[in-house]
Amino acid sequence: MVTEVRRDMLQRMRIKGGKKLIGTIPISGSKNLSLPAMMAAIMTDKPLLLRNVPRLADVLSAMDLLNYIGVDVNWADSNSLELRCGSIKTTEAPYDYVRKMRASILTLGPLVARFKKASVSLPGGCAIGTRGVDLHIKALQQLGAEVEVENGYINATAPDGLRGCDINFTTPSVTGTENALMAAALANGTSRILNAAMEPEVIEFANLLNMMGANIVGHGSPIITIEGVESVRGASFEIMPDRIEAGTYAIAAVVTSGRVLLKGCVQDHLSSFLETVRSVGGICEPVADGILVYREQDEIRPISICTAQYPGFPTDLQAQYMVLMTIANGASSVTENIFENRFMHVPELCRMGANISVIGRTATVVGAHELSGAQVMATDLRASVSLVIAGLVAKGETVVNRLYHLDRGYENIEDKLNNCGAEVERLNV
Ligand code: UD1
């Protein structure tokens, strides 16, 4: 088991601000596609090879959970994972695994579909809001499973297998759609997911399932149709580049007045986000091997945004965008429509000199403030990277505490930043 990214809880990051990011950043494989793709291994006794998997703490947490269930999972090379679920030891996903990573809920669909039962701990409290799992549960119930929530566990059984049906999501859920896809792929008959999530990760995940022998059409639209099959097989599949990582570094490039080639970044996956970056004064030029991001003018225009499901502005880039607005020439607002408590970075950014006030789901950012280095606390994955970006542009030294959040989603972040001229250092105490 590779543990090198499972870093000490006390680790901190020291950033000496004021350096322009100039160079090339290779974009790693998508975390949010790797996790469901790994869970899809439960659906078959044949081997699944996933290439371009990032070495992140969340991937290691998923490996641990799959190991616990009885799936053989090993690194075939530096970024390829080999998974095989010949037989299993248990259909339980215990609290200790699920609490570390909410995406563990993705074991529910494939376990019930193939092994006819599952017992998955409720994810529990989450820093960015209540984040229910009712849609996951309802999807399985509609497919004919008996589901009870007892003692903090979702217990689901389907002794006669799942049967095709219409699954109607009241709100589009990314992992909810992925769970439903895995369950419906092995159900008896035809299913439709109505109001399905349309994120690129969902489309690519359906492509993976089809490569494994599932029969899915309509992914990328709000209605996905799944013709159930008796079994699926293994596959060899390349994980697409991480659009959120790419968007994060795009903002870092503009914030620092730098010039960065985001190598491998797919423009189509980030269209509305890149449009916003262009409208604030960033240049995002598609080139042969990615997107070149820089800024030509000194001034950043204040542009208000609202987060939304794909193809809208991604909630996972909201915290990073807010840093950009702190140096804009005027006031703007940032409205968070997906998660109700995703402004934990605001007080930390204010400690660095930002002028941000929050009312309900909307933060008002008064820009043109110079940020100054400070000690700050990371609270979740995207909040922590926003503090790193703030540190890159701030005057003086910033120390980001509780760095372990960052390691859940950003592969080799110090190397990627330092290779572009940043001065970033991981401190062990
Ligand atoms: C996924 C991403 C996460 C991203 C989020 C929104 C993964 C592993 N994680 O999370 O990075 O921030 O999409 O793009 O892919 N909801 C319910 N009941 C449910 C499920 C969801 O009410 O059963 C609500 C949530 O509280 C939220 C909305 O639906 O308001 C969308 O959440 P969802 O798409 O499910 O997020 P995740 O799949 O958990």
Task: Give a description of the structure.
Helix 8 (243-255) packs parallel to helix 12 (381-393). The longest helix has 13 residues, at 57-69. The protein has helices at residues 31-39, 57-69, 95-98, 108-115, 134-142, 174-185, 200-211, 243-255, 271-280, 318-326, 345-351, 381-393, 413-418, and strands at 12-16, 22-26, 48-51, 72-77, 80-84, 92-93, 117-121, 146-150, 153-157, 166-168, 190-194, 215-217, 223-227, 235-238, 259-263, 282-287, 290-295, 305-306, 331-335, 355-359, 362-366, 375-377, 397-401, 423-427. The chain is of the alpha/beta class and 429 residues long. The chain folds into two domains: 12-28 and 241-427, Enolpyruvate transferase domain (UDP-n-acetylglucosamine1-carboxyvinyl-transferase, Chain, Alpha-beta prism), CATH 3.65.10.10; 31-238, UDP-n-acetylglucosamine1-carboxyvinyl-transferase, Chain (Alpha-beta prism). The protein binds uridine-diphosphate-N-acetylglucosamine. The site of uridine-diphosphate-N-acetylglucosamine has 22 residues, from helix 1, helix 5 and helix 6.
